[in-house]
Write a structure and sequence with these properties.
By secondary structure, this protein is mainly alpha-helical. It has one domain (about 1-145). The protein is about 95% helix and about 0% strand. The protein contains two helices and no strands. The protein has helices spanning about 1-15, 25-145.
Length: about 140
């Protein structure tokens, strides 16, 4: 502080041409002003520290709120996707079941037709066997008797 007063005395002397002594009342104002500035700096620093703390708390709160919101959005998105998948699976399973039933019906129809054809062939074979038996009986009767 003494160096500062000395600098002020020199500055006033060089700029204004007035010589001041260390006990001049004008320098009292300088001392008071310097003290007020120092107190003001301390008060501003305290307010700045308080603001910084409040800002950090607010940032933390915003972070938590953002995280919660993101989790909610993600969960909603997952739930919507799951519902969509379930709906698609149900719709597609109905289509698959219908196609399987159609294929089964087609195969049953084909098997039924093949069964009829097989029955006809079996009947014809039995008829041919009976005719063969009858003809061989006639031949046996004619040659043996």
């Amino acid at each position: 502080m003494t160096d500062q007063i000395e600098e002020i005395i020199k500055e006033i002397a060089s700029e204004n041409g007035i010589a001041l002594s260390r006990d001049d009342p004008v320098l009292i104002l300088q001392t008071i002003n310097a003290r007020l500035i120092k107190e003001h700096e301390l008060a501003q620093q305290a307010l700045l520290n308080q603001f910084k703390s409040e800002l950090e708390v607010a940032a933390h709160n915003w972070s938590e709120i953002s995280k919660t919101s993101a989790d909610q959005i993600l969960n909603s998105s997952i739930n919507a996707s799951m519902q969509t998948m379930e709906t698609l699976i149900n719709e597609n399973s109905d289509v698959v079941v219908k196609k399987l039933n159609d294929e089964r019906s087609t195969y049953i129809t084909e098997i039924s037709e093949l069964s009829k054809s097989s029955r006809i062939v079996a009947i014809l074979n039995i008829t041919a066997a009976f005719i063969t038996l009858l003809s061989s009986s006639v031949v046996f009767y004619l040659f043996v008797i």
